[in-house]
């Protein structure tokens, strides 16, 4: 079959590689336009676009798919199927019927739970015990289409977003070949979603600000959900926090206690041990290592501006 892959971020690169190795004809890759990054503001391609260029696959970066330009582009590639992974654009209704087998989306949740833009982060933040991969047929609604295949992935007490993305990618790379093969063979049909939907809205910097006034389990879930960008304030500067562990130690909310090997911060219930911190402008380091150079005293608190 003639395939198109549509994706943008680093997390979609393993799926691009998996699709490229299926033995079908990958006729093009859709990705978001280049963006200005770094101090130089030089335009840089997305991770998917960069990897596609390395693989020798034609890359297309339309600013939008609506209108004649998008329709002409998809039609000109004569696709049988389009595989979408975190593309970042809404697919207009008029494009869905151009490929012979339509468009399928690789979505990182157990649909219909966590439809939307940030399912991995919202699942961890909510304290879910499982996430998963759902590969579904795209239709006009937001992540509403029938599901071709799904696999559950557990969320442990120490699972953070990068770790969960890694596990979801591994599962999705195995699943995508099965789904493409089933669609080509025409032997099965996708199954309608069942259950009450929830929505994973895109998060902001405010969502990533750690709220130490919540119980330890919730604070841990927030940090793990937004790793590596969960942040707090300490003495007027921002610092990022990762690898939290719930302990039985009792400290005031935001209160800090450090030993030679451990760093603890109080919450509304018990304290968290912080495995890694990244002060503004500095690399990640162990929590205890940071504490040794932070000149802490009895009044030191996390979360104060």
UniProtKB/TrEMBL annotation:
EC numbers: 2.1.2.9
Entry-linked Pfam families? Formyl_trans_C, Formyl_trans_N
Cellular component GO terms, alphabetical:
cytosol
Q: Which UniProt keywords apply?
A: Protein biosynthesis, Transferase
GO MF assignments: methionyl-tRNA formyltransferase activity
Formyl transferase N-terminal domain residues:
2-175
- Going by the record, the broad EC class of this enzyme is transferase
InterPro entries registered for this protein in UniProt:
Fmt (IPR005794), Formyl_trans_C (IPR005793), Formyl_transf_N (IPR002376), Formyl_transf_N_sf (IPR036477), Formyl_transferase-like_C_sf (IPR011034), Met-tRNA-FMT_C (IPR044135), Met-tRNA-FMT_N (IPR041711)
Tell me if Transport is a UniProt keyword of this record. Answer: no
> Coiled-coil ranges per the record?
none
Residues holding (6S)-5,6,7,8-tetrahydrofolate: 109-112
Annotated Formyl transferase C-terminal domain residues: 204-294
Cite the Gene3D superfamilies for this sequence: 3.40.50.12230
Q: Provide the reaction this enzyme catalyses.
A: L-methionyl-tRNA(fMet) + (6R)-10-formyltetrahydrofolate = N-formyl-L-methionyl-tRNA(fMet) + (6S)-5,6,7,8-tetrahydrofolate + H(+)
Its annotated function is as follows: Attaches a formyl group to the free amino group of methionyl-tRNA(fMet). The formyl group appears to play a dual role in the initiator identity of N-formylmethionyl-tRNA by promoting its recognition by IF2 and preventing the misappropriation of this tRNA by the elongation apparatus.
List the PANTHER family.
METHIONYL-TRNA FORMYLTRANSFERASE, METHIONYL-TRNA FORMYLTRANSFERASE, MITOCHONDRIAL
**Homology family:** Belongs to the Fmt family.
This protein is called Methionyl-tRNA formyltransferase
Q: Which organism is it from?
A: Winkia neuii
Its gene is fmt
